[in-house]
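During the reporting period the student researcher (J.K.) took over the structure-prediction task from the postdoctoral fellow and processed the backlog of single-chain submissions. One of the processed entries is reproduced below for the supervisory committee.
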Amino acid sequence: MARFKFFLAFIALVICAAGAAGAWFYWKKVMQPDIAVTRHISGKGQQTLEKPDLGKRHFDAAIKLLQDGELLSARDRLLYLMQYFPESKTYDEAKRIVGEVNLDLLISKIPLKGKGEHTVKRGEALVTIARRNETTIDYIMRTNGKTTEFIYPDEVLTVFPLKFNVEISLDKGTVTVLDEETFFKEYEIVDKHLPPDMRAPVATTVSEKVAWYVDRPVNFTDENYLNCSKWVRTGKIGLFIRQQVKDSDDGGSKPFGVMLAKADMEELFTILRVGANVNLVN
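J.K. obtained the following structure tokens:
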């Protein structure tokens, strides 16, 4: 009887050992590779674990939504990624796509919360329509495919209240447009020349928007308006947002401001209103 009990105990021990060995094998060969990727650190004989990119699945899901034409859902999924997974390798591309989608949604006939229609009344002008709808003349012209200032009674125009703010980061080299506190789009600063005594932080507002053709300012009624350079003046002396300019051939001083590429400046000029907040940060 004692021998039989010993035999049973031995069998139980073998089963437990086999179970433990199987569990160890499953962990090493199946579970651990799924949790992290190991890499060898040269000279130390150690291993470190690389954290999985938790934002990538949201990025992949957003790309699928874009392919299906679900722009709003894709944009919101990418904004979620940007908020909760800023360390993701997909973050920069997500930010770029969000900016492009936001602009496509804004400057189009695609329905969007806040976007409306204005029926032109006799005697109205683009200036008054833009003011009443808290938008810009450039937005109305661009969204409605206009190349001149002419509008007609009973014409239906797409309008949208533009309430964007701007953050200029010198360290990052970016001009970021915010819809209140939410990221809207980011532009790269291609050059900058600020007064030597200007120090961040600076909080100011857009005081004037200027279109310049050759050697004179023009407005939207001028035939050269669509081809002129654009710049934004703020309430802080020397702080401008400008279209990139070439160095003067006659040795003249470079104008003050942060410079954007022409296409980027056109977009910013379109959606930014006088009075918008501008913050200069490091």
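The committee noted the following: Confidence is low (pLDDT under 50) at residues 30-43.
J.K. will present the remaining backlog at the next meeting.
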